[in-house]
Amino acid sequence: MSMKVGQTTRDRLIDASYQLARRQGFNRTSVSEVMKAAGVTKGSFFFHFPSKESLGLVVLKRDREEFLTMIDASLAAATPLQGIERFFAKALKKHRETGFIGGCLWGNTALEMCDSNSSFTEIVVGVFKEWTAKMSKAIRAGQACGQIRRDLPPEVLAQMIVASIEGGIMLSRLAKKAGPLKGCLKMLMTLLQPIAMGRSPGEQWMPESKQRSIPHRQEKSE
């Protein structure tokens, strides 16, 4: 595991722990593995962190700030729908760059720690709440300007976004390819947009040959 030039010992430990935990979970990651990956001694480890758990909490808190900042930067687009689409693109790019190895730290930690570690769980719950709230706010703004469908509550659509992305990440991690996550993100964009009269939901993402095969309802002649 390569470390960035100029990193402090503390930063190297945090980065090493993050990479290991994302791949194999916090419970399976040992202090010795972190020390080896970071290239530090046992004395250096415990000088900066009194325990493996204390390091894990710092890892989560740092990634929380980076993740929420990325969401805010994405949503600061010209329009609410463009902001959501930009967030989707950044999420896909991030996981493509990892080769779909390791998945999402938040989804992984939720499954690993929710029944056993209240300190970790509290941070993870907070991240999912803030993520959902930010999506909900953007959706509400999009509904107000007519960009996003108004027949479903913003909170419901936001929860669907979070759940679909986490599921898409898991499926892409299993397949080691972008298809599953990309498909989820495309269908979410279709779900958010007002449905055009006479078009089937999701049709805009289909090849033209398949679009032509979908029977449309005929308007009754007056």
How is this structure best described in words?
The protein has helices at 9-24, 31-38, 42-48, 52-75, 80-97, 105-113, 118-144, 154-175, 179-192, 208-212. It has 222 residues and is an all-alpha fold. Helix 5 crosses helix 7 (118-144) and helix 5 (80-97) runs antiparallel to helix 9 (179-192). The longest helix is centred in the middle third of the chain and has 27 residues, at 118-144.
Based on the model shown, name its key terms.
single chain, 222 residues, mainly alpha, Arc Repressor Mutant, subunit A, Tetracycline Repressor, domain 2
Q: Any chance you could write out the topology, listing elements then pairs?
A:
Blueprint: H1 9-24, H2 31-38, H3 42-48, H4 52-75, H5 80-97, H6 105-113, H7 118-144, H8 154-175, H9 179-192, H10 208-212
Helix pairs in contact: 1-2, 1-4, 4-5, 4-7, 5-7, 5-9, 6-7, 7-8, 8-9
Q: Structural class of the secondary structure composition? A: mainly alpha
How do the helices and strands follow one another from N- to C-terminus? HHHHHHHHHH
Shape: elongated
State the CATH class of the largest domain: Mainly Alpha
Strand content: under 5%
CATH superfamily of the largest domain: Tetracycline Repressor, domain 2
Number of strands: 0
The CATH topology assignment of the largest domain is: Tetracycline Repressor, domain 2
Helix content estimate: 55-70%
User: Mind telling me which CATH architecture of the largest domain this is?
Assistant: Orthogonal Bundle
Low-pLDDT ranges: 197-207, 213-222
Query: Span from first to last CA?
Result: 71 Å
Q: Give the total of domains.
A: 2
